[in-house]
Amino acid sequence: MIMTLEERRNMSQTTIQNLILENREKLSISGVLDVLSFDDQIVMVETELRTSYY
Fold this sequence. Notes:
The chain is an alpha+beta fold. The protein contains one helix and five strands, in the order H-E-E-E-E-E. 19% of the residues lie in helices and 43% in strands.
């Protein structure tokens, strides 16, 4: 999905995303469109705003 800069600005003002890590065991992320890859060191996800690494 390719968005213009204006669309990204509008989305970032209206989209709320949360990242919650509980006891270094459970990670919850809202706004995720797709999990691109993961292992015990890194999680790569595509969110409503952009691709992110955790």
